[in-house]
Amino acid sequence: MTPSPGPAKPPPLPATPKRGRPPAPISQDAGPVHRAWLEPVRTILFSGGLTLDDLVERSGYSKTRISELLRGNGYYPAWEITFSVTHALGLPAPPLRRLWAAGAREARKGDGWIEYSIAQVAHDGHGPPLPYQAFTQRMAGTYADYARAFLLTDRRARYVVREAFDMLWVCWNHAVTSENLHRYAWRLFRSRVMIRASRWQDGRVDLRPAVFSTHEVHDHAAAPGHLVVLTELVDLFDAITRLPEDQLDVVVLRHLCGIPHQRIADVLGHAHAITHAVDHHARAALKDFLRPSSPPTPE
Length: 299
Hints:
This protein is mostly helical. 61% of the residues lie in helices and 0% in strands. The longest helix has 22 residues, at 130-151. The protein is elongated, with a radius of gyration of 26 Å.
């Protein structure tokens, strides 16, 4: 008697193809404006699970050239290859083109080179999503006030806000699926301010120049006691930079920019009660920083 066959075995699963390795870290030679578009492009590439091989297939450029572009290595890339790679990732052209052009100027490319490079790509792209437009319009004024406290001039403040909003547009689909859109956008914007802020040798930001734009100093330069007020404000602004990041942000927004607590909570992506608590702890810390130290006890 022939034994009956056992249960049929499922067919073997096809071997999972090995994914290529991600490109190496960004070159130290890439400047901060170059990184403004390169970092979000890399973030979206890696979070989407794509590899260099995928980009080669989608863009038509060689792995070597794409790898150099993603590392910020060698010559600054032309808009044609930059567009091809970012378009393959489904990223919007208008903000990337502005960021790319700013990076080209940082790399000392002339306007003629920039214009010629852009002219090689006949693609204007689409306008920003309506939710993005609503969000950025609501945040623009407060972001500019914060940036001005560190960068001092309206021109520099407006530029860094535009740069951050272009980066946010590039990352918009990623941002809206994050845990907290407001927090995501604030961290992105804050990073652009901080790379341009003046710093002490120990790495802390230097807020002292902002003293001269305050009402007390600017409007009462000839008043008696002006130098005393100036010295006290310098000490206060120096103490603010010793605060933890979240406390520093709340103090700058509330007490330097005059933004109400409820508005600060919305901008930072915090609950209203948390913003109040952070402000309370920050003011207590500043009192400790500014309290005169006790003289040493004589032996």
